[in-house]
Fold each of these.
Amino acid sequence: MRGPVRYRIRRIEAMAGAKFGCAGGTLVALPLGLVVGWLARVLVGLARYTMEGWQQVPLDLGLAQVPLDVVALLRLSDWLAQARFWDDAPVLVIGGATLMAIALVGSVGSLLGWIGAGVYNALAAFSGGLAIDLEEIE
């Protein structure tokens, strides 16, 4: 039986750090993205509910009540149509927001992994890097 083998990590490839950062960022972003997607879904539903409530607002003129369509008055019909479309497609809203969060956080993680690899390589050039003792397991 031989003694422990000693290895030194002198350099980490920048792309390896970027890939590791991207994978870590993606794992972190998945639950965050689902929460953001659910929140976007709720906000779209609230916007639709609010604008549909504005379509028949009673205007009291004293002697009579006149229905007023605030959506048409403010020219929000296209916005209401879009809110109806997105409110009727919750999978698209939640999935799209989740994918956007994953892409954003994964990209940031990739950048941080790349920077971390560069920082380690710069420090390892001066200090010699990390030394690891490995022992064989039988």
Amino acid sequence: MRWVAALVLTANSIAQGVVHAQALDVRPTPFTEPRTGNQARHGEVVLGQTTLSGTRRMFAELLSSDSIKVARGHQGNPSPIPAGTVWQVASHRVQPSYKLDLGPDRYTLYYDKNERLIAAIAQDLPGALTKADLLVRYPTLRKGRRWYSGNQARSEQWTTAVETCVTLVASLLLPQERLEQLSYIYTCPTQKGTPRL
């Protein structure tokens, strides 16, 4: 009987692919990658698993505070993202459906159609990091897209896989090559099902 249970568990792992969950503190800290684990600790969310409703429960007090400003005419918090929106992250296509703002000094969180956390994005991190700092920490960083304002280069996107299903995306402001935005993107498919925190 144990042999049959082990065989079923192995077959399920192979069929679904072995994917390690990544937990992330909602307060961005440079060079602190998500940790392996599918159990969120206080102040953490799990990429690919944490649901939108779970996040709203975990951070209910924070979400009801005055530190989160929702502009007049805004669709609310969380806000829906227009259907058909697709992000190209390295060789992966990611489709966000909802955006949740947890306020200043925290990641803005994005969820897919299954309402699973697929992105944590931070703007203006402390410490004025540059491309040189990032390349020391992440030697596998690869240059992706470049954005222009007129014919003047404005910013560049650099990416690297930090885990099987998690890609770090760094947006650098040009010409100083200063870090403007840091993102962790979950690139594996998510599943509907019983909500997990």
Amino acid sequence: MANVLRQVNCGFGSVYHHEEAGVMFLKKITLLLIVSMGASFSIRVAGTLFPLIFKPVFMVKTTILFNAVFILIHVIFWLFFYREYVLKNKIALKEICMAAVIGSFAVSVIYMRKLPFVFGVNVIFPIFMINPIYDAVVPLICSVIHLVFYISFKQALSDNEKTVNSIGNRSR
């Protein structure tokens, strides 16, 4: 990995040009994704255990904003994962990863269409987007697509990419 960091002198001192900046951003967005998934789960658990917490409109609007940010992080993760890993290392996963990107975007529409309520704007959406079947079927289809992706991804990993379990044996 001699080409990971290359020093470039721009006349203003040393600037390190990182050829794998996209990979570093992918690592950061992955961390954000993990944190946002934990926060989203925590909000749902709190809402289940204490349903009156969402009685004030302020709490509902805040939760909608948080969920919109969380789902955007999810979509951004899939886009960067596709660009920085799949296209460069795992071309065989190109189609199923793009399906995961599209599925995540379709789910994000469910969350984004609640944003006008937060800002007090009245927006008329197309009929198919406000249909309760869309709200039920799209996340289900997206979950199946993600499951198929993860199975395909596991099969596409090379031996040096597979994680080591707690005993020290390579997982198969």
